[in-house]
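2024-03-11 09:14:02 INFO queue: dequeued item Dihydropyrimidine dehydrogenase, len=490
2024-03-11 09:14:02 INFO validating residues
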Amino acid sequence: MNTNELITERRNQEWRETLRKSRSAKERSAIERVKMPELDPSYRITSLTEEVNTGLTEEQALLEATRCLDCAKPTCMEGCPVGIHIPSFVKEIERGRFAEAATILRETSSLPAVCGRVCPQERQCESKCIYHSMKKEPVAIGYLERFAADWERVNGTMKVPELQPRNGKKVAVVGSGPAGLSFAGDMAKLGYEVVVFEALHEIGGVLKYGIPEYRLPNEVVDAEIELLHRMGVSFETNTIVGATLSYDDIHDMGFSGLFVGSGAGLPNFMGIKGENLVGVMSSNEYLTRVNLMNAGAEDSETPVFRGRSVAVIGGGNTAMDSVRTAKRLGAERAMIVYRRSEEEMPARIEEIAHAKEEGVEFLTLHNPVEYLSNERGRVRSMLLQKMELGEPDASGRRKPVAIEGAIEEVPVDVVIVSIGVSPNPLVPNAFKGLNVSSKGTIVVNENNATDLPDVYAGGDIVRGGATVILAMGDGRKAASSMHEYLSRLS
Ligand code: FAD
Ligand code: SF4
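2024-03-11 09:14:37 INFO prediction written
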């Protein structure tokens, strides 16, 4: 049965028809969209680890699921990069079958509790919900996804999926971010012995070293990793492929296929004067040290500069995570400096709203041009160029243009540069024969295959900085393509 037939069959199930008819569309659409319960801003800025969004209660989830009209043509699904069967899992929630809802999510998404928290749903599935055409708020698909996945974890119903018998073949994975984890899970299901090599001492990629716990708790990621362990996947941490292990070493170890999900962990800088002063650092350094090395703790042996007046340069999710972390580490003034207006900010709307509630200042239409130092070589202030919006540029966003002579000096003692990332060059440089783009990304075909026949790649190393769901989707696609390739060889 293909996907469309399965979706139709599910929609035509007797219970589903009965449920659909139990309330009119008018009644359903009269229900107001649920509000995500969250910790009070004055309390939450005291904790780096307590999750801000506390999750829907069962009553809230049941009511929100009731809003969904179970459309014959569910346009929401068109907005989901991995094609989650959205109305099917939502209707399982409406009838109180939470474990079944989670099972449906897992058919297409290997990390539903993660995606339910961090996906930009407002630009994906929810942006396509039919409610928009009625001038109403969309169904809270992301909150419901998180609800079902959390229910499964908390109630201990996360099951090891059906695994095919071992086929005697070994495959290696470089990197344990969402791309690598989803590839590993799918290959384990297909009967392969899977070993994931990770450069850091922790497994999870950006999910652990980048996104802070107050947004994505480690226990959520660890539950997924534990499931992979139970499926037989093994992990080798502190192993840098391209340095500790070469391409030849991996073949000598008996691996017949290799998936590269090494991400984009190389920070970009602006190249302006003063960027090398003490107190100026990248978001990557700042977040990794706080999240993985406990550098925000009072008794840390390698503490990070806490800063009383902290400026974060950029307007993406990484910038929001950094500025909200700075607030939690006691900054009296925590600022976002962004050269466009708020409308153009790439960060999720929820993250921007949360940052504002937590007292973050937004200096939009400002661009740093220089950092000035005190007598000890430490940053003391930044010179900001005021901007205005001009014509749209190649990205379709209105281009920021400098207002001549409009420069102001703002005192700062920490600057965190968060203007994007580039692919880690290690694997692209170490594997001879890989086709690498001018931006340093690995070039793949529509099956995520590289120019080396046994090497596949996906996630940020292919896309540059993208999203968790796209990385996860790449890992899954690469698994199915590599399986096809290796099956043909034997
Ligand atoms: P990564 O998650 O980067 O994982 C790559 C892994 O490979 C890392 O663990 C790295 O240590 C390892 N590695 C690298 N080189 C080697 C090597 N040579 N040998 C062995 N291991 C290696 N996306 C969203 O959808 N929503 C969000 O809210 C969001 N917020 C974000 C916040 C921050 C702070 C950051 C940095 C990113 C955010 N993103 C968000 C983007 C998202 O996290 C990434 O697109 C996604 O994690 C990419 O997954 P990946 O598996 O390709 O790479
Ligand atoms: Fe439900 Fe909205 Fe999807 Fe229709 S478009 S099935 S109302 S979530």
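2024-03-11 09:14:37 INFO annotate: The pocket of flavin-adenine dinucleotide (ligand 1) is lined by residues 118-119, 174-180, 197-200, 205-206, 210-211, 240-242, 261-263, 265, 287, 317-318, 321, 348, 424, 426-427, 459-460, 465-469, 471 (CB under 6 Å).
2024-03-11 09:14:38 INFO item closed
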